[in-house]
Design goal:
5 helices; rod-shaped; single chain; 3-stranded antiparallel beta sheet; SH3 type barrels
Amino acid sequence: MKKADVKVGSRYTAKVSDKVVVVRIDAENPHGGWDATNEATGKRVRVKSAQRLRGAVHKSKPMALAIPSQAGGAEADPKAAKKAKVEAWRKEVAAKGAAPDPELDKAIKAADANRAAKKAKATKARGERKTSILDAAVQVLKTAGGGPLGCKEMVERMLAKGLWRTKGKTPAATLYSALLRETRKGQASRFKKVDRGQFALLKDAGVA
């Protein structure tokens, strides 16, 4: 087009950022050319010369309609372009998700096995009741015909037979204290104090 054919307020097709769009000439630019509005995006653009304008656009043509580019032939619609990018991204993510990943599968299996092992260990721990020192004392005294035995000897026997385990430094004193508390229960007690430092089983504890 020629400069004399360009009129302020008119609409023309112009190439903007490698796309042919409809622009509206708003005013002449003091540095040359014209200030215009890209009707496809609503952004201000500068048309530096009349050669950038392709031709006048009739008023009845939609303002935001992008004109097909001669180079690509695709519509320069920003919403359509954004939608196309989103669809392409979704397809790429779906393709990656469907592809096998040996390392990921291995990590998932290891995590599942670890959870299963912890669950089995917790179930076993709940199902097993740790033998108390008094339960172990009952078993030791039963093997001794009901007693009596001293606390030190009872501890040595229960540790040797694996009836009870401890990391304490004074297990005999621990047993003595537990037996004294038990004998204070009266008829509910499984033990009786026979002599100083010695205890025996009551008949109710299973000794005739």
